[in-house]
């Protein structure tokens, strides 16, 4: 709690909600469920909603940012396809894009190629659109985590993000967030996402260095904190 408070300044429902991407990326999600997501994000004071590209553009958006995903969930797409998807999302009015890197490039040490595909998406989604790179940290070694974070920074990304939440290797871990923070913290944002279901887990991620959280059960997490 103390370490999280040092990161946020104040630990309460509002301060934690203010760094949450309130997320609904289930393939079967409906338009009505997305509308409910937006309403809940407003009620909780979440920073943004994160939805699938097919749900864009979102109508009557106010008070929350709109994020989407690119190359999701596998990342095993041609860089040109990821860039085209990102460009379409920008045209549909998103504020932020969370792209999945090609894991095979990372696990085989092709970090120049990792940087090149991130740069292609960055070129298609220029500032002020925020670009987050999902590195699928649970599937990488510590060395690979460090190298892909460096590649993301070199390519102009704004954030690195732990996980899609769909990979069988698992989601966010305190160790991965700490390593990401030591590598690019203070220059890039750190988003922890995947399997964060409790208030305690969220605070651990913040204490480790997370500056943004991806949560689907945001209400459960923030309502465990003082108002």
UniProtKB/TrEMBL annotation:
User: Which reaction is the catalytic activity of this chain?
Assistant: 2-deoxy-D-ribose 5-phosphate = D-glyceraldehyde 3-phosphate + acetaldehyde
Name the InterPro entries on file. Aldolase_TIM, DeoC, DeoC/FbaB/LacD_aldolase, DeoC_typeI
The record's subcellular location field reads: Cytoplasm
Which GO terms label this protein's molecular function in UniProt? deoxyribose-phosphate aldolase activity
Q: Which EC numbers characterise this protein's activity in its record?
A: 4.1.2.4
What protein name applies here? Deoxyribose-phosphate aldolase
The family database entries (HAMAP family) matched by this protein are listed as: DeoC_type1 (MF_00114)
Q: Which organism is it from?
A: Georgenia alba
So where's the catalytic machinery, residue-wise?
A: 98, 161, 191
Question: Keywords for this entry?
Answer: Cytoplasm, Lyase, Schiff base
């Amino acid at each position: 709690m103390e370490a999280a408070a040092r990161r946020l300044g104040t630990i309460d429902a509002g301060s934690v909600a203010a760094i949450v991407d309130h997320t609904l990326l289930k393939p079967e999600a409906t338009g009505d469920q997305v509308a409910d997501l937006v309403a809940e994000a407003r009620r909780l004071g979440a920073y943004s909603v994160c939805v699938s590209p097919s749900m864009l553009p979102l109508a009557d958006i106010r008070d929350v940012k709109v994020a989407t995903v690119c190359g999701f969930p596998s990342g095993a797409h041609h860089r040109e396809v990821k860039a085209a998807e990102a460009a379409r999302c920008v045209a549909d009015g998103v504020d932020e894009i969370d792209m999945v890197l090609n894991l095979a490039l990372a696990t085989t040490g092709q970090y120049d190629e990792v940087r090149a595909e991130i740069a292609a998406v960055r070129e298609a989604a220029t500032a002020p659109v925020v670009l987050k790179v999902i590195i699928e940290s649970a599937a990488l070694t510590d060395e690979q985590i460090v190298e892909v974070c460096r590649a993301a920074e070199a390519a102009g990304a704004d954030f690195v993000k732990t996980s899609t939440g769909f990979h069988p290797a698992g989601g966010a871990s305190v160790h991965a967030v700490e390593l990401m923070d030591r590598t690019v913290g203070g220059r890039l944002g750190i988003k922890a996402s995947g399997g964060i279901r409790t208030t305690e887990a969220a605070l651990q991620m913040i204490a480790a260095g997370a500056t943004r959280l991806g949560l689907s059960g945001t209400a459960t997490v923030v309502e465990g904190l003082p108002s």
